[in-house]
Amino acid sequence: SQTIHQWPATLVQPVGSPLSLECTVEGTSNPNLYWYRQAAGRGLQLLFYSVGIGQISSEVPQNLSASRPQDRQFILSSKKLLLSDSGFYLCAWSDRGFLSYEQYFGPGTRLTVT
Amino acid sequence: AQSVAQPEDQVNVAEGNPLTVKCTYSVSGNPYLFWYVQYPNRGLQFLLKYITGDNLVKGSYGFEAEFNKSQTSFHLKKPSALVSDSALYFCAVRDSGYSTLTFGKGTMLLVSP
Description:
- The complex is a heterodimer of chains A (114) and B (113).
- Chain A has 114 residues and is an all-beta fold.
- Chain A has strands at residues 3-7, 10-13, 19-26, 32-38, 44-52, 55-58, 64-70, 73-78, 87-94, 103-105, 109-113.
- Helices cover 0% and strands 58% of the residues of chain A.
- With 113 residues, chain B is mainly beta.
- Chain B has strands at 3-5, 10-14, 19-21, 24-26, 31-38, 44-50, 56-58, 64-68, 73-78, 87-95, 102-103, 107-112.
- Chain A binds chain B through residues 32, 34, 41-44, 46, 49, 51, 59, 88, 90, 92, 99, 101-108, 110, and chain B through 32, 34, 36, 41-46, 49, 51, 88, 90, 94, 99-101, 103, 105-106, 108.
């Protein structure tokens, strides 16, 4: 069966510091990968998605970036965090099969920028 | 463009009563529709999906949803609510011409004992 991991689970970082969040998927090959942010409240905002190694699409301009160095690894980064970067970051994967459009989410990383 | 609306911020229901969480969508092509549930400080869990076929879709934990093309709706239902169903519920849509999902803002379901 497939599993998705995210780490760290929680993170407290000062404004201006760098960020690296990691997501890995097990039990599947060539997944589509996604990064979302859920701000206080509830809405989900798609940040980045990737359909293959080195292929990243950005949905929202911001000071964040994403990379996919390996097939099942997706990294969210920032060189300098802003207060507004605080939130709950969720990684998700989906299969590329014709009818498998649903996404499966990781446990999330709670980021607090102070 | 694709969009989804969840008109209720919160739904309150007594345990044992039926529940409905509403969702309407807008797409230009054929809709692919999904429901997810989120418990506090957790990721989203997939409940069910409609891609094609029967308008009534059954999913996990006794939930079901009815696709209504004329009303562009995909309401989530359960015949008998449990206190443990209390959580945040998200509807999501994907237009057949798009590669990403658009999520609603979520509806908090509170089931009282």
